[in-house]
């Protein structure tokens, strides 16, 4: 099992991995969860998949097992910045409630957003925990390399149960809310503490 952090400047070094990550996202978000998202050439994508973002792929022998997108909170592309902030500003058309945060969404060099997190549905239960730990390790490592001291994410509201198990220090940034197929909450993950 390998982890690769992809960017527009290095994707040519990794063959089909970048495209396979977007194909796996389609499988996870459009086919499995039935979310209404843009797709083309069998890949799911959105307005935050720009050269400003980074993508972490957990993969094995060409198969994408899991993925994560990291976007700087300083990102700008037309009217868009990053998902949580754009939801708060009302730019996303109401799919995510505007009152998802207790305070104004941060725009800080050292704060990155973590989004489009998924684990391939075909992974057997016996492997899932290992994949989760690998994801956390890759996510925190890549974010720190990018200069992040904090990650923010809109995540499943069961996060306190497994974030601690994975060694993450996190706290809620807003209320629990029902979106599409589950209960979600914005969280802040502290990366400034000790390195693993």
UniProtKB/TrEMBL annotation:
Belongs to the autoinducer synthase family. The keyword Plastid does not apply. It catalyses: a fatty acyl-[ACP] + S-adenosyl-L-methionine = an N-acyl-L-homoserine lactone + S-methyl-5'-thioadenosine + holo-[ACP] + H(+). This is acyl-homoserine-lactone synthase. SUPFAM superfamilies: Acyl-CoA N-acyltransferases (Nat). It comes from the Bacteria. Keywords: Autoinducer synthesis, Quorum sensing, S-adenosyl-L-methionine, Transferase. It is an enzyme of class 2 (transferase). PANTHER family: ACYL-HOMOSERINE-LACTONE SYNTHASE, ISOVALERYL-HOMOSERINE LACTONE SYNTHASE. The keyword Endoplasmic reticulum does not apply. Its EC number is 2.3.1.184.
């Amino acid at each position: 099992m390998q982890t690769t952090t992809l960017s527009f400047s290095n994707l040519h070094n990794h063959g089909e991995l970048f495209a396979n990550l977007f194909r796996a996202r389609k499988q996870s978000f459009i086919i499995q969860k039935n979310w209404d998202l843009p797709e083309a050439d069998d890949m799911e994508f959105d307005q935050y998949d720009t050269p400003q973002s980074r993508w972490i792929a957990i993969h094995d022998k060409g198969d994408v097992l899991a993925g994560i997108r990291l976007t700087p909170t300083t990102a700008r592309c037309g009217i868009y910045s990053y998902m949580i902030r754009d939801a708060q500003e009302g730019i996303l058309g109401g799919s995510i409630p505007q009152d998802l945060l207790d305070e104004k969404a941060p725009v800080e060099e050292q704060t990155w957003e973590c989004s489009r997190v998924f684990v391939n549905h075909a992974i057997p239960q016996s492997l899932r925990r290992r994949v989760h730990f690998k994801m956390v390790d890759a996510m925190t490592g890549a974010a720190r390399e990018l200069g992040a001291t904090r990650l923010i994410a809109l995540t499943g509201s069961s996060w306190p149960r497994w974030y601690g198990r994975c060694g993450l220090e996190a706290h809620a940034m807003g209320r629990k809310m029902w979106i599409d197929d589950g209960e979600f909450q914005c969280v802040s993950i502290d990366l400034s503490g000790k390195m693993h």
